[in-house]
Amino acid sequence: MNFNFSRRDFPTDFIFGAATAAYQIEGSKFGNCGSSHWDTWSKTPGNVHKADDGSIACDHYNKFDLDLDLIKSGGFDSYRFSTSWARVMPDGTNINPDGLDFYDRLVDGIVERGLKPNLTLYHWELPSVMSDIGGWSNREVPERFADFTNIIIERIGDRVDYVSTINEPWCVAWLSYFIGGQAPGIKDIRAAMRAMHHIMLAHGKALEVLRSHDQENLGIVLNLGHGEAASNNDEDILATKTFDAIHTRWFMDSLFKGYYPTDMISKVGNHMPENFENDMSLISAPIDWLGINYYTRGLIKAAPEEPWPHFKGVDGPLPKTQMGWEIYPEGLELLLKRIYNDYTNDLPIMITENGMANEDVVDNNECNDFDRVRYFEDHLQIVIRCIAYGVPIKGFFGWSLLDNYEWAYGYEKRFGLVHVDYETQKRTPKASFKAFQKAISGNQ
Ligand code: IFM
């Protein structure tokens, strides 16, 4: 099954890539990696499907050459990967030489294959020692993250083309400290508001370090929420505005306008760290590109009976992925045009993640994930449309290269372009991988 588009439908310098993240694929038991809050949170009953953890994952630590060969054979231009803080600084202070060596070898391998390394500094594996002092609710953690940034960039900065500081700050702060759906699983508004600020401060501090090394092409990766009201009632419309403040404006206003949304500060600003205003110029320092991760929309209903933020997400009517997420490519178009018009203008944008989980099975060495081919087709057609509209979209990264550890969902949800048999670690490229191979090599 082929895509209806090919590389020719995109600007000549458009980057096609595949994305992963350290904890989800590497195997945290290899290479003297330190403990992260995922290693402990996953072992607390009820947090993670089957109490799965990332100790072995896809054994990418040992099999990275094989995986880089796959990316190359898919015809991709770039590989988006992340560095694990717990692997490089297991005790939060001292360097694990094996950890740094691994990223050195990995980046060499990417470059040797003619691929562009796109590095994400933080994709969620907070060292347990940082969690011990309160994690992202403690202002010291952004300071220590700046040290980590310095160590990474001194070692591999000379070979990476793009760097983003933080992956999905909403997940790092709100999902993890308010909703409690990810490590460390805290549900506390005060901790959450502090984490919401400190994760943006970590971005600002890391950016400062990166600039001091004259590192180029610096950005951040956001999973902005495209919210729609579940009905035309005023209450649901107002609730959707609050959803938007938490999911989108918190990040876009702070990065591009230097303030946090007043409809949020007026409600819960009393939980913010003292003098947070003094950090806003650091947080809003210019970036060179913005990464957007898009999967679905949020359908929002007012919940006046509950404490602020007085809303809940409801089940929508559209076809859903294995995650239960509605398939809604139109949301990507609405989101991209909005941020282009309201915030970013000519700032380059990359779609740093997009994809779907599916109950994929391998039969006779084939994995026919045709629903995923259709999903990518529909989202990439939107990208083509948005580029024609004028949005400067410079790249698209499929999530994910491999089936991998889907956090609280363990290994049950499969997002890969390549199927992974976790018993044997055999990789089997799926139909979606082959569709990319044809479309981007121009062989169709
Ligand atoms: O697997 C995650 C990834 O780590 C961050 N973005 C969303 C993906 C799918 O849930």
As for the CATH topology, it is TIM Barrel
Question: Domains counted in the coordinates: how many?
Answer: 1
Cα-atom radius of gyration: 20 Å
Structural class: alpha/beta
* Chemical compounds bound to the protein: 5-hydroxymethyl-3,4-dihydroxypiperidine
What can be said about this structure in brief?
This protein has 444 residues and is α/β, with parallel strands linked by helices. Helices cover 40% and strands 15% of the residues. The protein has helices at residues 22-25, 37-41, 60-73, 85-88, 97-112, 128-132, 140-156, 169-177, 189-212, 234-256, 262-268, 280-283, 329-344, 370-389, 431-441; strands spanning 15-19, 78-82, 116-122, 162-167, 218-222, 226-229, 289-293, 297-302, 311-313, 349-353, 393-399, 418-421, 426-429.
Descriptive account of the structure:
- The chain is an alpha/beta fold and 444 residues long.
- The chain has one domain (7-440): TIM Barrel, CATH 3.20.20.80.
- It contains 15 helices and 13 strands.
- The strands form 3 sheets. The chain has an 8-stranded parallel beta barrel with strand order 1-2-3-4-5-7-10-11, surrounded by 4 helices. A 3-stranded mixed sheet has the order 6-8-9. The protein has a two-stranded antiparallel ribbon with strand order 12-13.
- Helix 3 runs parallel beside helix 5 and helix 8 runs antiparallel to helix 9.
- The termini are close together.
- 5-hydroxymethyl-3,4-dihydroxypiperidine (IFM) binds next to loops.
